[in-house]
Write a structure and sequence with these properties.
The complex is a heterodimer of chains A (319) and B (312). Chain A is an all-alpha fold. Chain A is built from 15 helices and 2 strands. In chain A, strands 1-2 form a two-stranded antiparallel ribbon. With 312 residues, chain B is mainly alpha-helical. Chain B is globular. Classes of the chains: A mainly alpha (319), B mainly alpha (312).
Chain lengths: 319, 312
């Protein structure tokens, strides 16, 4: 038995058996060249743009044209825009703070509802759908393939004053002249749930489907009821999919500005995304928009990094 | 054995045979009907509005809420406002298709080579850029769109807003699909194939060309399907980077017409066209993927379905 060391030092397999190791430097160059276009692309069109946002946020205004001027040298950065944003968040006439609270509460409510609705559905399809699994999966995935705008449009049709939702309510003898699209928070929250739940369900399904069925059978054989098996085995094992699924729904919700524009369109339901979108289109406020989006990024960078690490780990485990 | 122990034992035996509830024991493996009904209610809630929205695109009237009979007027017959006769609507359809094609054509080779390179080149640079790539996958689209808006209006102002900016941004946003899917596939394949190829005298280029690319073909195909369809559905990036009717795709057009007013069933027609496009891609993707992974172990209908939807 030759030890790996002797092999590497040049036994009879030295030339062929370990060819990939022997020519490693040569290989390395090849794979660096292979990765280079993607790396250059990401550097130029992902890293540089964020530096540019920083430079604009830390820059100042051209007082003649009202255009933002990016300052690329950190030594010359000014805190004017940061101070402006800070003032709108925490200052005396702060109008952003209520908006931030509203964003958090809409997102939390929508995410909780997504989980409450999505988990049982994903659990059923992963565990009990049996031979009809493919059918259920097609139906669960279908919204994923339909444009967000089309799905919002569908609700705009239904929720109009003379729309079908009010008609059904009228038939049931309930109040049927509700102006659902007139700036109601529950319409916006339901819109968010409807918009983002397919992503959550897909993640939950994939996670729940991966749970080894024999673990659940063992638990049942050992006398645990269905409910206790769920609580003691399934739920702990689905912690990871729940966390990543929540992130995949919460992160885009926090940057959402179109759902409430479409389903409410009034200032009473605006979220932080609307503010960023509005500042981007208002001359003189681009710098503050840049600061605001960077602040949002700063808050979200920890959950984002967590998500990246968690998915990388589960990919390694799956391999 | 003492009498008390004997008594205790029979007690235990009785306790074990006695049902713990006064009513008869139910089948422990019974079908969870409540859960199934819940799932069906969810599916109805999630799909019926869409069916109705498609139906309203055939409405013989201007309302998006009241059914006034079937017609093709919003597709063909209306001489002004139908998709077939309104040049703005046609431009929107065309722009969506253009962006999807451009983005897929650039993002797939970029992502595939990136994944192949990163997979074998282990180092601090490759690890950092892999992390950056994954960040680009999870970052909220608005924050990314804001960065793209600024970079194309200030630093790279030569690009400006429009189709080029949209394409560049969409490629960056979508390049993570092929990169992630290919890396996952490479991890499943393992190193034995490429090592065998190297042992048999292949250069790294030949290994990639003759061994890895054929093995990766289904994954490349699946990611192309995903990128194409996600560009059809994309809204935030193109909303921030489009500036006139020529470079406004369908999603942005629907948004700009619908918010703040009743856009009319022509929008439903546009949405239905988007939907049909996505579904054609999905169906082609599904059958293409099945065909390419034919005879492989562990590829079932459900696995193919989740792959096509991006569940790696």
């Amino acid at each position: 038995m030759t030890s790996p060391a002797t092999v590497r030092r040049g036994g009879w397999r030295g030339r062929h058996g370990r060819a990939s190791r022997a020519s490693a430097p040569h290989n390395r160059v090849f794979f660096i060249i292979l990765a280079a276009p993607g790396i250059i692309w990401l550097a130029l069109l992902f890293i540089v743009p964020f530096y540019d946002v920083l430079a604009i946020g830390a820059g100042h205004l051209n007082l003649l044209t009202g255009q933002p001027i990016a300052v690329y040298n950190p030594a010359q950065w000014s805190a004017t825009n940061l101070a402006g944003s800070w003032h709108t968040i925490f200052g005396a006439s702060a109008y952003l703070l209520p908006l931030i609270w509203r964003t958090i509460w809409y997102t939390a409510a929508a995410a909780a509802l997504c989980l409450l609705i999505g988990y049982p559905a994903a659990y059923f399809v992963a565990r009990f759908a049996g031979r009809r699994k493919a059918l259920f999966l097609v139906l669960l995935i279908a919204p994923f393939w339909i444009s967000y705008m089309m799905r919002m449009l569908a609700w705009i049709d239904l929720l109009q004053i003379n729309g079908y939702v009010n008609k059904v309510l009228g038939i049931l003898g309930l109040p049927s002249q509700i102006d659902w699209l007139g700036g109601r928070w529950y319409t916006v929250v339901l819109g968010l749930v409807y918009g983002y739940i397919p992503y959550l369900i897909l993640v939950l399904y994939a996670g729940l489907d991966r749970i080894d069925g024999s673990l659940l059978e063992a638990s049942r054989d050992l006398g645990l009821s269905r409910a206790r098996t769920f609580a003691k085995v399934t739920l702990p094992l689905s912690r990871q999919p729940i966390l990543t699924g929540m992130l995949i729904t919460v992160l885009p919700m926090l940057g959402d500005y179109f759902t409430n524009q479409l389903l409410s369109g009034t200032t009473g339901t605006t979220m932080i995304g609307n503010e960023i979108d509005a500042q981007l289109g208002t001359q003189g406020f681009e710098g503050q928009g840049a600061v605001l989006s960077l602040l949002l990024l700063l808050v979200l960078v920890v959950p984002m990094a967590y998500y990246v690490r968690a998915t990388a780990r589960s990919a390694r485990e799956a391999a | 054995m003492t009498a008390t122990a004997q008594a205790a034992r029979t007690d235990v035996a009785k306790a074990a045979t006695r049902p713990s509830f006064p009513w008869p024991r139910r089948n422990p493996w019974r079908h969870p009907w409540i859960l199934e009904s819940f799932t069906w209610i969810y599916l109805i809630w999630s799909l019926v509005p869409l069916v109705l929205a498609v139906l309203f695109s055939f409405n013989n009237g201007k309302s998006q809420a009241v059914w006034q009979g079937f017609s093709w007027r919003w597709y063909f017959t209306d001489p002004l406002n139908s998709v077939a006769h309104d040049p703005v609507l046609q431009l929107a359809v065309l722009q969506t298709l253009k962006l999807s094609a451009y983005t897929t054509a650039i993002a797939i080779p970029l992502g595939v080579t990136f994944a192949l390179g990163i997979h074998r080149w282990r180092g601090i640079t490759s690890a950092s850029f892999n992390f950056v790539m994954l960040l680009s996958f999870v970052i909220p689209e608005l924050i990314f769109g804001v960065a793209m808006f600024f970079v194309f209006t200030t630093l790279f102002s030569g690009v400006g807003l429009g189709t080029l900016a949209e394409t560049l941004a969409l490629v960056t946003w979508n390049v993570s699909w092929p990169a992630i899917i290919i890396q996952a596939r490479l991890a499943t394949i393992g190193n034995s194939y490429s090592e065998a190829a190297a042992d048999l005298g292949c250069t790294p280029f030949q290994t990639v060309r003759r061994v890895m690319l054929p093995l990766l073909a289904p994954a490349i195909f699946a990611s192309a399907v995903l990128v194409f369809s996600s560009v059809i559905d994309d809204f935030v990036i193109v909303d921030l980077l489009s500036n006139n009717a020529v470079n406004t795709p369908m999603s942005v057009y629907i948004y700009s017409q619908q918010h703040g007013g009743n856009g009319g069933p022509a929008l439903n027609a546009l949405g239905t066209i988007m939907l049909v496009m996505s579904f054609i891609i999905a169906i082609l993707g599904y059958f293409g993927y099945r065909l390419m992974t034919r005879g492989e172990r562990g590829t079932s209908t459900t696995a193919a379905l989740t792959t096509i939807a991006g569940g790696t």
